[in-house]
Amino acid sequence: MLSPRLLAAAKMVREGARLADVGTDHGYLPVYLSCKNKISFALASDIARGPLARAEENIANADMCGKIRTLLAPGLEGAENFEPTDIVIAGMGGEMIVSILDKAAFVRKGDIHLILQPMTKQEFLREYLCAEGFEFLREDLVCERQRIYQLILCRYTGKAYGLSALEKAVGPLNLKREDAALRNILKETVGRCEKILRGQQASGILDSQTLLLLSEARAKLEKLERRECCDGQ
Ligand SMILES: C[S@@+](CC[C@H](N)C(=O)[O-])C[C@H]1O[C@@H](n2cnc3c(N)ncnc32)[C@H](O)[C@@H]1O
């Protein structure tokens, strides 16, 4: 069984897809989706030999060698030849994901779905995606071992647009939620901003982007808590 984080990514992969799992490591995702017969083919790639060997072992143990190919390569290098329809890049920093996408012009096709799960720098990744014309189709927030993970499903349209500081940090679609996951990530965002600003207090120069994000996150949190309070009455 997959972890909640990888399961959320698996749910975003389309039925019958040709999957590319970049930075596959253990290969759990392509193995799970192939065993479930949800995908028609998978490419499991990784930049490092050790992780790829682990993936190869898991693929062989699941008897899925006929359905999953492995590739030792950085990012999406060489992946285009396998004509992926759905590309997962999970468990890496937002800056690394941007660097991988930026080097792969072939992902700029409306019929390719990108499923991204940044561990850090979510703002940086979303800023890149909206500036480069990728639209958000779905987002998710998943809690695993006391940590909230963000998932993004997007595709290329070529139409650039802007997002607020809070939309970049938490996700425009996630902000439409009204549940505990949203409340928790807003609290986490407020705490993170307060910590950054406390560290900057000695210098007397506070980062304007962090101040903006803090005020947007606090306002949204208050709105959410007011609604919960009204609903509870
Ligand atoms: C933390 S693991 C994530 C594994 C899996 N995707 C997951 O979400 O559970 C990150 C993996 O990405 C690989 N990796 C890091 N940078 C990469 C790059 N530029 N291209 C391909 N793989 C990369 C690492 O070798 C490692 O196996």
Shape descriptor reads: globular
List the quaternary state of the chains: single chain
Total E-strand runs: 7
Helicity level: 40-55%
Separate helix tally: 8
Task: Give your account of this protein's structure.
There is one protein chain. With 233 residues, this protein is of the alpha/beta class. The protein has two domains: 4-163, Rossmann fold, CATH 3.40.50; 180-231. It has eight helices and seven strands, in the order H-E-H-E-H-E-E-H-E-H-E-E-H-H-H. A seven-stranded mixed β-sheet has the order 3-2-1-4-5-7-6, sandwiched between helices. The longest helix has 24 residues, at 208-231. The protein is globular and about 55 Å long. Bound molecules: S-adenosylmethionine.
Provide a compact summary of the structure:
This protein has 233 residues and is an alpha/beta fold.
List keywords for this structure.
globular; seven-stranded mixed beta sheet; alpha/beta; 2 domains; 8 helices; 233 residues; Rossmann fold; binds S-adenosylmethionine; 7 strands
Task: Explain the layout of strands and helices.
Layout: H1 4-12, E1 17-22, H2 28-35, E2 39-46, H3 49-61, E3 68-72, E4 86-92, H4 94-102, E5 113-118, H5 122-131, E6 134-144, E7 147-156, H6 165-170, H7 180-200, H8 208-231
Parallel strand pairs: 1-2, 1-4, 2-3, 4-5
Antiparallel strand pairs: 5-7, 6-7
Helix pairs in contact: 1-2, 4-5, 7-8
